[in-house]
Each structure stands twice: as C-alpha cells, then as structure tokens.
Amino acid sequence: MSKFTKALEKIQNDKLENPVSPDKKQSSYGLPKELEEPVRHWDKGVPSVKNAKPETCIVTYHFPNSLITEQYRMLRTNLKTQLEKDKAKVVLISSSVHGEGKTVTATNLAISLAEAEDCKVALIDADLRRGRVTEYLGLGKNLKGLSELLAQNLSFKQLMVKNSLPNLLILPKGKTVKNPSELVESQKFRVLVAELRNHFDYILIDAPPIMSVADVSILARETDGLLMVVRSGRTPKNVISQAHHLFEQAGVKILGYVLTGVEYQSADARYYYHQYYSNQVDKKKQFKTRVEHYLKKTGEKFQKAEEKFNQWWEKTVLKK
After folding, report:
1. If you placed Cys at 167, which of 14, 114, 263, 296 could pair as Cys (CB 3.0 to 4.6 Å)?
2. Quick one: which of 15, 40, 20 has its CA closest to 30?
3. Is the pTM here over 0.85, yes or no?
4. Distance (Å, rounded) from C-alpha 218 to C-alpha 75?
5. Residuewise pLDDT in 10s, the chain (320 residues)
6. Cβ(180)–Cβ(53) below 8 Å
7. Which distant-in-sequence residues (6+ apart) come within 8 Å of 260 by Cβ?
8. C-beta neighbour count of 164 within 10 angstroms
9. Are the beta carbons of 220 and 252 closer than 8 angstroms?
10. Where are the alpha helices (DSSP H) in the chain?
C-alpha cells in the first residue's frame, strides 16, 4: 500500500471518528460555523423592493415616536409574552367584517415585532380576495404571492419580498382567484406554515373577516391563536358577538382583541407631540403645559372607550 493511499485512509477514518473537527466552532444545531449559511443569511435570495414608501397609516414606520406607535409596542409586548408562554409563533389577525382595520393592525404590529434585533418576522397576506398588505407597505399591487405559491410548484422564498425594514419579509396575496377557499385548504398551505415555523420567530397571517368567507376557519387550523380586530363605534355589537362564536367554533384560540378607530389624537396633537419628542422642543413652559394637558385629555378618552368596551365584552360575549 502506498503512502498516499495510507494517508487517504487515515483522513477517512478521522472523519468517521470525528465528524466535526474539535477546533471548529459549532452552532446550536451541531453544525460547523461555515455550514450555517441558512441561519446567518436567512433572507438570502429574497428580492428587495427599493424606494418603497408605506402609506401614512403605517405609523410605526412614519411616526416611530408617536403615542399610537407606543400602543402597537404595548400590543407587541403583551403578545410576545403570551406566545412565549405557550411556545407559539403563528398568529391569525382577522375581524368580523371589512373596514375594521385588521390589515393596518397586522402591518404595524409586524414592523413593531421586527424592531427587535435578530427577530425574524413574516407577514403573510392571506386575504386572497381583498388583501392590501403590499399596497400599505408601498410595494405595489401586482406582485406574485400566496395564490401562485398554492396553485403552482413554487417556494415561499421565490415569492417573498422585503424593503428597507430589517428582519421583516412579506408574502403578498398574489393574483386574485375565484377559489381561494380551495387553495388555502390544500396540503401546500399546511406545508408552507410548517416551513415558515422553521425560518421565522413570528408569523402574522392577515386573514379575511370571518363573517364574509369560509377561508378564515380553514386558515385558523394552522395557527396558534387569533387577534380579533374591532372598530370602535362602527361594528354592531351583535355582529362582534356572532363573529366571536364563529372563531370559537373554528377551534382557534383567541389571544385577545385590538380596539381600533378610537379618536386618540387630532392632527394638532400629533404636531405638538412630534415637535416635543423629536428634539425640536419649544422650551417655553406654556407650550409644554399645553401638550401635556391635551395628551392627558385624549389618553383619558381612549381609556374610557376601552373600559366601556371591556364591560360590554364581559357581559355580552364571555358569559355566553
């Protein structure tokens, strides 16, 4: 046997006895550091839409220091606490009927979650009839997305997009189709959610209203819980109650509700607030007092509306 052959045999034996060289740094997955590309470059290959500017309703992007953005951060904190306790990560966001603010809520919440360093967030537009996630984020209307993924042999990385927001990937709704219920009920949707669980820390699914279509009950099967969006002063209470019971019948765990449409700040209040908190503070005591008085007043108004809703919720829905 030649020296060269003996050397090759020695190398092979060393590999069998020590699959990973002790001098190589290992990850939590037991792989050498150089094999961790899917972890280190988790968004590799996902196209980025340049110069995408979200609409002004995405306050977490345009007004990061506003009181409304802080409300979304409070929602984020409460949601993360509950998800971590249940070891869950897939959240369905829906409402009773259209126009309650579910998509605006889902998008702002996704951005808020993605603020944390090394927190990977996926936002899925599963409202295959009237989805507007990409429009709100300034990504355009005609992107391929979930409907193409479910109808064709495509992977989510081929269809997801990102913009300047770190840690956030978006799966558009795709082309409007006539049979969305059949698509989301397919095995491909279950496989998609399972794959996303392996790649992301949080997955938000913007779903249609439950009173409109059957899609939501189907989507709910693959999620860990629901955030129910309710618009204050608009949606009839009996409709909210009926939607609540439909969600329960679908077997989805209701994580909580989000009250939208409360008159929280006027344009003047936002102006004073941003002037005060963007290092352009008018140091005069009169200006500061005026701002604090107005914010206290509007905050109390918001709190009263929330308390009133909570009382109705406990009496009408939870006791049934």
Report:
1. 114
2. 20
3. no
4. 25
5. 555 455 545 555 554 444 444 343 333 333 333 333 344 466 777 877 778 889 999 999 999 888 889 999 999 999 999 899 888 999 999 988 888 899 999 999 999 999 988 899 999 999 988 899 999 999 988 899 999 998 887 888 889 998 888 789 999 999 988 888 888 888 888 999 999 999 999 999 999 888 877 788 888 888 999 999 988 877 788 888 888 888 888 888 889 888 887 755 444 434 433 433 443 344 445 555 665 665 566 666 666 666 777 776 677 766 65
6. no
7. 100, 101, 104, 105, 229, 230, 231, 232
8. 13
9. yes
10. 3-17, 37-40, 59-62, 67-86, 102-113, 133-136, 146-151, 156-159, 180-184, 187-199, 215-220, 237-249, 267-277, 285-313
The Cα–Cα gap between 164 and 145 comes to 19
For tokens 């899917």, the residue is 38
Q: What is the DSSP string of 78-97?
A: HHHHHHHHHT--EEEEEESS
Q: Using CA atoms, how far apart are residues 239 and 99, in angstroms rounded to an integer?
A: 13
